[in-house]
User: Fold this.
Amino acid sequence: MNKKSIFVDLKIDSVIKSIKKEVEDKHISCIIIDKYKQIVNDKIVYVLVLEKYYIRIMNKVTATVVIDDFEDKTRIYVKAGGGFSSYFVRYDWGAAKNFEEEVYSVFEKHIIE
Assistant:
C-alpha cells in the first residue's frame, strides 16, 4: 500500500488514538517520540514522529505522520526513513517501507475518496 496520502472517515483525535493503540501499544520497540498540533482558522494539522527498532537492520527507523483536515475530511500522510547500517551502506532492507505500510494498514477499513 504505497500511497502518497489517504483520506479517512475518522476525526483527527480518533486517528491519533488509533496510531497509539495499533502501532505504539502493540509493539514493544515502537514509540511516539514527538507530537505537534497547530490550529489555524478552525483547521488542524497534527504531526507525529514515531520511532521503531528493527532487528533485521539492528537500527531504528523514524516515521513522520502528518494528519490534517484542510479539505473538510481527514488526510493522513506517512513517510519513514533512516535505519541505514552505516554511512556507506544506505539500504534499510525494506524497513522504512514496512513501517509506512504498518501505519497506513491501521486505517484500511476507513479509507474514503
The chain has one domain: 6-112.
